[in-house]
Design goal:
alpha+beta; Nuclear Transport Factor 2, Chain: A; two-stranded antiparallel sheet; 3 helices
Length: about 150
C-alpha cells in the first residue's frame, strides 16, 4: 500500500517530454504535477491534432484575436470547462476566471480553481494565454504561402 494513498492521481510523461540519457528513461510527472501537465497539454492542443483522439483539445488559439467582451469571455470559459469535463476526469472545475490585468501587454491569465475528485483537495492552475508575435512565420513559409 502507498504511503499517502494518492498514486491513483496518475503518472505520465513530463511536458515538454524530457529524457534522462544516463538511465535511458523518460522523465515522468506524478500526482498533482501530472494533473497540471495534463491541463497544460489540454489547453494548448487543437481539436483534431491528436491522431488517436481527434476530439481531444480546446482550440484556445481560435480566440486570440477576438475582442475581449462578455461573449468572448463566456465562450473561452465554456471551451475550457467543456474540454476539462470530457478529457480530465480526475478533477471537478469549481471556477474559471480570466485575469485581464495585463491585457494591454497581450496576456490573459486563465485561473482554474478545481477539486481533485478522489482526495477532495482544492488546487489552482494558472495558464498564461497569449500568442508570441511571429511564431506562425515558419509554418507560413514552409507551405509556400505569403503572410499578409
Amino acid at each position: 500500500m502507498a504511503e499517502n494513498g494518492n498514486e491513483f492521481l496518475g503518472r505520465g510523461w513530463s511536458f515538454p517530454p524530457a529524457f534522462n540519457a544516463p538511465q535511458q528513461t523518460v522523465m515522468l510527472t506524478e500526482k498533482q504535477a501530472d494533473i497540471e501537465c495534463s491541463l497544460h497539454v489540454l489547453l494548448t492542443t487543437r481539436v483534431g491534432e491528436r491522431v488517436m483522439q481527434p476530439k481531444y483539445g480546446c482550440n484556445m488559439d481560435d480566440m486570440v484575436f477576438e475582442s475581449l467582451n462578455t461573449a468572448t469571455i463566456t465562450l473561452i470559459k465554456d471551451k475550457i470547462a467543456t474540454a476539462i469535463l470530457y478529457f480530465e476526469p480526475r478533477i471537478d472545475v469549481k471556477k474559471i476566471n480570466l485575469n485581464t490585468d495585463n491585457l494591454l501587454e497581450g496576456t490573459i491569465l486563465v485561473e482554474i480553481d478545481y477539486l481533485v475528485r478522489a482526495t477532495n483537495s482544492r488546487f489552482n492552475f494558472v495558464f498564461p494565454y497569449f500568442r508570441l508575435e511571429g511564431t506562425e512565420l515558419q509554418f507560413l513559409t514552409t507551405n509556400n504561402t505569403t503572410a499578409l
